[in-house]
Amino acid sequence: MKRHALLLSVASFALLAAPAMAQTATPEQKAEAADPNAPIEAQAPVAQEQATASAAGRSPGTQATENLDNNVDPRDIVVTGYRASLGSAQAIKRNSDAILDAIVAQDIGKLPDNTAAESLARVTGVQVSRFSDEVTQVLVRGLPDVATTFNGRDIFTAENRRAALQDFPAGALAGLEVYKSGTADLLEPGLAGLINVRSRRPFDFEKGFTIAGGIRGTYNDQSKKFDPLGNLLISQRADTAIGEIGWLVNAAYTQAQYRNAVRWADGFVTTPSANSTVSPSSVGRTWAIPAAVGVYNDSGKRWRPAVNANVQWRPAHNLEIYYDFLYQSYRGETANDWMRVPLVDGSPSFSNVVLRDGEARQVESLTKTGGVRPETYRSTNKGYTDTYQVAVGGKWDLGPAHFSTDLAYTTSQYGTNEWSFDTAFAGAPQADVRFFVDGGSSFSLPGFDASNPANYIWRGYFESIYRVQGKGWQWRGDLDFDTNLSLVPKLQIGVRWTDRDASLERGNRYAYTEWLGIPLNQTPTGTLALTQNAFRGNQGFTSWLMPSREGIAGNASQLRQFSIDALQRIIAGNPTDQGYRDALNRWQSPQVQFDPLQEFYATEQTYAFYGQAKYEFDIGAVRVDGLVGTRVVNTVGRYSGLSSVTFNGVTRAEPRSTKANYVDVLPNFSLRVRPNDKLQVRFGFTITRTKPEFSQLNPAIFISQNTATPVPDQLPDTRFGPGLQGRPDAFGNGGNPDLQPLTSKNYDATIEYYFSPTASITAAAFYRDLKGFISTYVNRTIDPVYGLLEINRPENAGRGKIKGFELGAQTFFDFLPGLWSGFGVQANTTYLIGEQQYPANVFASAGGTTEPPFVNIPGLSRWTYNVALFYEKGDVSTRLSLNNRDAYLNSNFVNAQGVYNGEGVEQIQRLDFSFNYNIMKEVTVTFDVANLLAQPFNNYAQYGDGLRYPRDIRDEGRYYGVGLRFRF
Question: How far apart are CA 102 and CA 197, in angstroms?
């Protein structure tokens, strides 16, 4: 009797990061798993076969290297639960010729993850960064340069070279593979490796009709909002007169309304000016404080509809033709509130100054009086992403030869419109500031009535438009040939061609109106209200008056006319000010116009060829196998932009274009030794490279005269040398067409021991020899035309290295009696050390006269670990998981003495819980909590040898979810 398998859900799948093993299910095991009353623990061996079969063809390098018993079709058997998921992931990793970790959606809704990016945080060697209550960056072994593929083909978002993994709803996934070492048949991995996102196809299911889905709701304890999530899969597979045909349609929807509360201090730390009074006088004047403190509330609503569809046709047993369609999107509406309280501007008075115990150069608390007034804004934003990918392909088996081909077209666009409303306080209230309160700054404004409109004036209105787009064709052809030779059983060759375009267009306009002193309640923005307080404590001043989001974005036309009228009044009072006239001219059109000076275009073609041989032999009872191959890639590109120089109110523009044509030779070698069927040891060597982002290659540079009012008693900038001090004459920014691809020589070794279908211990050691890591740096130089020029642009660093190890283990306690046998545990940890040589030209501008020092690589945490406790027995399954990421640096600016000046992030931990109960075989109810600890994000600014102030403390949301899943 065949049963339909539930393989999709609105809630997140049981995406379990696990090492893998290759164990073929015996006919007896398959028969036991097929029994309608089979226990959960009987399903893991069959799950391994099912996962391996599903991954083959859509995840290069994951096909099994051992023969599988095909007497029973594993797709005819329902396999569910954590045990099945762990076994499935083990099968993929154990059988892979590459070093990888797998996440398998074998069952439905076992984790409270909404996106692929969230699930990756649980994988050994993966680190993630979060913003706006979601994962926005994925790093593998400390590096962010990860290539992304969808069913084995390149996928990207807008102008980027890789996809935004948070745009993949978990309900659309069959699995994820994280490749840590490449093989020649893979798309060129980035420095960090490659992440393949795999969807389902109709031939993954048994013949007949399948429908599955679910609905889930979440509640955010900071935004106080409820959000729906859902998905539905429909698939059919049948024999017809023209062969076997299957079709599948899957739709998913996720939504989140969030509000993060941030109390922050400026990263620029300085001493009081000579005109400021300080009391008590006994504290002296050698101490330094952040230039400002403030509040930032990051809030909004985002939703992501997604659809993937597939048709498979098998007209003959050895021929398959398929069609893939993917649509993924993002929609977002934000209203971000920002407030800044200057502490040193305008020479204020400081009283009640208390120095830190044992450190006379830092302040614990003080009272600021006078100086410059606080300022605020509410930035409202509406953004979108639309990504489409269509592909056709086929597989043809001709005896020992296996041919496959795939042709795909991808187009992706991201756009955003912003309407920002700026205000200022009518005066400068007293500010009581404490700089070290539970890891961050905190301030209050005693005596200030935040609800009185008379205490605010209109400061300005800003509009912007931003559009980036990417599109491209790609084709590949691959031939695998079974040689029937014992030493070299398989040869692989293939070709790949791509044609990519990327573009950027943007424009903005601003009406600065503070000079008029217009009261806040006289602006055409409707009702005013205090901003929402989303802090969990420790912040005194939390809310101020602002129009609603609809009062700003919904009244954009009225605010445009109001801005025009205000600028005309200002010009009447300042008839010779050309800056205000230029600003007024930009407001003459109803919509913001694209600025030609900010456009960027790129075209790039690649031509790749690879050859690879699989070898295997025995040394006594020890089995040895591996791969030897090379991938050669020719890149031809053209990158264009428009440079501009603005001096004395006059702008000169000059088109700039650069070309690139280079060849990368990327060899790979792997060796696997298997003394027995439970133990294997791997060694690998690869060379990988990552191209700079298209925007980083923009040849345009923008230089503008410094027209700001000179600041008296300006202090030295410790970032630069003695000959580069003082007020810059001009500022510059732009891309860098001279950037070189990042290259890395990679050495890997693993040892893996599998002692049951769901239990294993694994260890890995790795070393990366890097060259050319790209970061953005601020540099100063004396230009013969523009004088002291301060420029911000990306630069290649010198050589670098990353080394570390990974440990992982998992097991279920089947040896315990009764209900205790349902417990299981999974744990992994990663240790990393990484450093890179500082760019020589940037170090020279900082006053360095020696060889640039080696500094820590930004974004790299020394320790990362995950621990998960499972319970699965009968109709109940639960999971409690802890994720830890240690401290890391955001940047690595050093001065001539080698002292670090920059920002870092403190340790962060997250605890998630999920509970599932099968009320009947076809229906499951779920409950989950994400971010149980609600530990705030905490970073700091270091400004001297051993001296630092807290930078941001961000309170993030805790999510509660309930759901219902079905499968028929």
Answer: 10
Q: What is the C-alpha separation between 965 and 45, in angstroms, rounded?
A: 25
Q: Is 158 left (phi over 0), alpha (psi -120 to 50) or beta?
A: left
SS3 at position 84:
helix
SS3 at position 732: strand
Kindly report the number of other CB atoms within 10 A of residue 128's CB atom: 22
User: What's the pLDDT tens digit per position in 431-462?
Assistant: 999 999 998 999 999 999 999 999 999 999 99
Helices 44-55/27-34 angle, 10° precision: 100
- In Å, how far from its chain's centre is CA 706? 35
What does the alpha-carbon distance between residue 138 and residue 166 come to, in Å, rounded to a whole number?
10
Which residues touch 615 (CB under 8 Å, ≥6 apart)? 487, 488, 489, 625, 626, 627, 628
Angle between helices 578-585 and 556-573 (to 10 degrees): 160
Helix or strand (DSSP H, E) at 566: helix 556-573
pLDDT digits (tens, 9 = 90+) for 570-589: 999 988 888 899 899 999 99
CB distance 351 to 367 below 8 Å: yes
Percent helix / strand / coil, the chain, rounded to 5 = 10, 55, 30
d(CA 602, CA 659): 10
Looking only at the bridges linking them, the beta strands covering 730-734 and 787-796 are: parallel
Between CA 470 and CA 693 the distance in angstroms is 12
> At 111, is the pLDDT very low, low, confident or very high (cuts 50, 70, 90)?
very low
Token representation of residue 723: 């000959």
Q: CA angle, corner 828, sides to 825 and 831, nearest 5?
A: 160
Q: Residue 899 carries which side chain, given as an amino acid letter?
A: V
> What is the reported pLDDT for 536?
87
- 3-state SS string for 867-901: EEEEEEECCEEEEEEEEEECCEECCCEECCCCCEE
Beta strands per DSSP E along 278-348: 289-290, 292-316, 319-342
**Order of all β-strands in the sheet with 440-444:** 349-356, 359-369, 431-437, 440-444
Q: Which amino acid is at 55?
A: A
Find all residues with CB under 8 Å of 90, minimum gap 6, and list them: 18, 19, 20, 21, 48, 754, 757, 758, 760
Distance separating alpha carbons of residues 544 and 294, to the nearest angstrom? 12
Q: Are 33 and 237 in contact (CB under 8 A)?
A: no
Q: How many helices (H) and strands (E) does the chain have?
A: 8, 48
> To 5 degrees, how large is the angle CA 924–CA 925–CA 930?
125
User: Can you tell me the distance from the alpha carbon of 864 to that of 505, in angstroms, rounded to the nearest whole number?
Assistant: 39
CB atoms within 10 A of CB 530: 12
Give the lowest-confidence range in 36-45, 369-378, 656-665, 724-733: 36-45
Q: Is 964 helix (H, G, I), strand (E, B) or coil?
A: strand
For residue 711, name the pLDDT band (cuts at 50, 70, 90).
Answer: low
- Compute, in degrees rounded to 10, the torsion defined by CA atoms 799, 941, 898, 793: 50
Q: How far apart are CA 694 and CA 600, in angstroms?
A: 9
Q: What global pTM score does this model have?
A: 0.89
Structure tokens at 773: 């890591």
pLDDT at 846: 62
Helix (H) or strand (E) holding 34: helix 27-34
Instruction: Scan for tokens 């429908």, then name that residue.
Output: 211
Distance CA 523, CA 525 (A): 6
Beta carbons of 150 and 326 less than 8 angstroms apart: yes
827 burial (CB, 10 Å; 0-12 / 13-18 / 19+) is middle
Distance of CA 718 to the CA centre of its chain: 32
The answer to whether the Cα torsion of 85, 89, 91, 92 is positive or negative is positive
Task: Give the DSSP H/E element, type plus range, for residue 49.
Answer: helix 44-55
Q: What is the DSSP letter of 533?
A: -
- Output the six-digit token pair for 266: 């400026």
**What is the pLDDT, as a whole number, of residue 200?**
87
